[in-house]
Specification:
The complex is a heterodimer. By secondary structure, chain A is an all-alpha fold. Chain A has two domains: about 110 residues, Rna Polymerase Sigma Factor, Chain: A; about 70 residues, Arc Repressor Mutant, subunit A, CATH 1.10.10. Chain A is about 70% helix and about 0% strand. In chain A, helix 2 crosses helix 3, helix 3 crosses helix 4 and helix 3 crosses helix 5. The N and C termini of chain A lie far apart (about 45 Å). By secondary structure, chain B is of the alpha+beta class. Chain B folds into three domains: about 70 residues; about 35 residues; about 200 residues, Thrombin, subunit H (Beta Barrel), CATH 2.40.10. Chain B is about 45% helix and about 20% strand. Chain B has nine helices and twelve strands. In chain B, helix 1 crosses helix 3. The radius of gyration of chain B is 59 Å and the shape is rod-shaped. The chains are: A mainly alpha, B alpha+beta. At the A-B interface, helix 3, helix 4, helix 6, helix 7 and helix 9 of A face helix 1, helix 3 and helix 4 of B.
Chain lengths: ~190, ~375
């Protein structure tokens, strides 16, 4: 399986274009092409397959966001970039768990990617705050917020879903929910 | 305008559902009112974060779906670096191996303890050290014997050696008869005696008795003018144990006095012709007189047993007297009359020695 995947490895520019065009096939190809490399890195450095999945997905998200934001330049191989990000993330995770012995077994060459990883971590913190704020918000506010702001549903849809008799009531409800969500979000440290 | 209304305005402004007129109005408001402006920015940022969060969840869902299609276990097997079977064995079973090893060690130690093997080792060791002790003892006796044999050899060699050999002799009479040890003059070509003043006189061996290690010399040098009467006499009976004795001789190039006591009535290995005395002597003392406190000659120093500290031997004076009687009369060119009057008795030791040293000679032997 590994060899077949490698044989059909997409070129780096194909991947960048595919991601910019939201191609599901390219994303899948990207994912399956480099996962074995990262699995190898993690399982041979005190991790298991679940750690590998977490780390790899984070790296793919970093790459994805970078491509989407238009800041990505193909100055190095995608493979090296992904490996470097994963390596950096895994070292952080290891030292966080006190499992880092000061020595890592490497399989590829790597680049310094500290800035990207730090940016990513900063954003992750914001997202986890948002997640817990939404959890605390409770129903129906959570669904209203998600439907309206994330899934871009119209107020009309939302009225019908929640059985509001008129759009004004729904709007008032949405406003109250948003105010509470902001409050919950900013209360967190 | 309430906060609620403002929020709604901002949302409508952002999603583009405002009419051109409303829009112009709102932009004017935004420009003039800093509060409104900051509210717009804040709202945009917060909703942006919320949207990105949604996108992130969406992306994670997609990635998870892709991930689920991968056969992670097979892949993991493929990429894991397997350590050698010994390491794996140790990692998986190290606790069991440790327990087994400790049980084995306990079992061995227990068995050894209860079968008495551990104790036996100690007694074996004791036996061994006893064996070594025995060997040491036999080694020591062997050494003693070898040394005495070497001594004997040395004693005989001294005489055969070219060059001169020193011993001591002392006067028997005032006319130049001197007694010394046979071994001192054995095999000699020529013999000289030297007095305390350093004068040498040629001498001739006139009688020897190797069995008692006695030799009698006669000074036949023209320069010799006689000694004056000998101050000591010769004791006929044997002397008692513990008697203070002294000697004077030439272990060195100068005359040396030695003080001691008679420690045994018999000599080396029970030799009845000799006394054993505790007195500091050296090879050159051979032939010197052994005197008691009163100044009677009781013997002739003849050997030193090197292995026994402080033990020296002396030929008893009775055998000296016997030897003198045995001298054939044709060997004596002059009469050999022993002095019977002891002029040393009652003198202090230093006075005794002052007188005595004139009658004690260094015997110098030349051969070849």
């Amino acid at each position: 399986m590994n060899k077949e995947l490698k044989a059909s490895a997409p070129t780096d520019s194909e991947i960048v274009l595919g991601i910019l065009n939201n191609s599901e096939i390219v994303l899948k190809k990207l994912y399956t092409t480099y996962f074995p490399m990262i699995l190898q890195l993690i399982v041979n450095n005190n991790g298991d397959e679940d750690d590998a999945k977490d780390i790899y997905q984070e790296a793919i998200i970093v790459l994805y966001n970078k491509i989407k934001s238009g800041k990505f330049e193909l100055s190095s191989k995608l493979k090296t970039y992904i490996y470097s990000v994963c390596r950096r993330l895994w070292l952080k995770r290891l030292s966080h768990m006190n499992r880092y012995g000061g020595d890592i077994r490497d399989f590829e060459e790597y680049l310094p990617v500290d800035e990207e990883v730090d940016d990513h971590n900063e954003r992750d913190i914001q997202f986890s705050k948002m997640e817990s704020a939404l959890q605390l918000l409770g129903e129906p506010c959570k669904t209203i917020m998600e439907d309206f702001y994330i899934h871009n549903r119209s107020m009309q849809d939302i009225c019908e879903r929640f059985g509001y008799t008129n759009a004004d009531n729904a709007k008032t409800q949405k406003y109250k929910c948003l105010q509470r969500l902001k409050k919950l979000f900013f209360q967190q440290k | 305008m309430s906060d609620h209304q403002l929020t709604e305005l901002i949302e409508r402004y952002l999603d583009g559902s405002m009419s051109t007129e409303e829009r112009t109005q709102f932009e004017l408001l935004r420009k003039n009112d800093a509060t409104v402006e900051s509210r717009v920015a804040e709202h945009m940022q917060f909703i942006g974060l919320l949207k990105q969060y949604g996108e992130r969840l969406e992306l994670e869902k997609r990635l998870n779906a892709i991930h689920d299609e991968i056969d992670v276990h097979a892949l993991k097997e493929e990429v894991t670096i397997h350590p050698t079977w010994v390491v794996r064995m140790w990692r998986n079973h190290h606790s069991k191996i440790s327990v087994a090893a400790s049980i084995a060690i306990f079992a061995i130690l227990g068995t050894l303890f209860f079968t008495g093997k551990l104790n036996n080792h100690e007694s074996n060791f004791e036996q061994l050290s006893q064996e070594i002790g025995k060997i040491k003892q036999s080694q020591a006796t062997l050494n003693t014997r070898t040394n005495s044999i070497i001594n004997d050899i040395k004693g005989s060699k001294r005489i055969t050696n070219p060059g001169n050999f020193r011993g001591t002799g002392f006067a028997l009479s005032s006319n130049g008869y001197i007694v010394t040890n046979y071994h001192v003059i054995k095999d000699a070509d020529s013999v000289y005696v030297q007095n305390a003043a350093g004068e040498s006189f040629h001498s001739k061996v006139i009688y020897t008795e190797p069995g008692n290690d006695i030799a009698v010399l006669q000074i036949n040098d023209e320069a010799f003018e006689g000694l004056g009467s000998v101050p000591y006499n010769f004791k006929r009976s044997s002397t008692d144990l513990g008697e203070n004795v002294f000697t004077i001789g030439y272990p060195d190039s100068k005359v040396v006095f030695g003080l001691g006591a008679l420690t045994s009535a018999t000599g080396y290995q029970g030799d009845t012709t000799e006394y054993q005395v505790s007195i500091p002597v050296n090879p050159g003392n051979s032939g010197g007189p052994l005197l008691d406190d009163k100044g009677n000659v009781i013997g002739i120093i003849n050997a030193k047993q090197t292995q026994v500290a402080g033990a020296a031997f002396a030929v008893k004076s009775a055998y000296l007297l016997k030897a003198i009687q045995n001298i054939p009369s044709d060997s004596l060119s002059k009469s050999l009359t022993l002095n019977t009057k002891n002029t040393l008795a009652g003198l202090s030791r230093t006075q005794q020695l002052k007188k005595l040293k004139n009658y004690v000679f260094m015997v110098k032997v030349y051969n070849q």
